[in-house]
Amino acid sequence: MDKVAPIKRIAQGIVRVLGLNPGPFTLDGTNTYVFGNGERRLLVDTGDGEQPEYFDLLKQCLGGSRIDRILLTHWHGDHIGGVNRLLAMPEVVTPDCAVFKRPDPVDARDDVRAMLAQAVLQNRLRGITDSQLFAVDDIQLQAVFTPGHTDDHMAFIVTSDSFAEERLLLTGDLVLGRGTTIVSDLQRYMESLKMMLDTRPSALLPGHGPIISGSNGETPNAVRVIEGYIEHRNLRERQIVAMLSGEPPEAPPMPRNGGWRLEEVTAAVYPEITDPKVILAAQHNARLHLDKLVSDDKAEKRLGTEPAVELWALRDRQI
Question: How far is Cα 152 from Cα 80, in angstroms, rounded to an integer?
Answer without folding.
Answer: 13
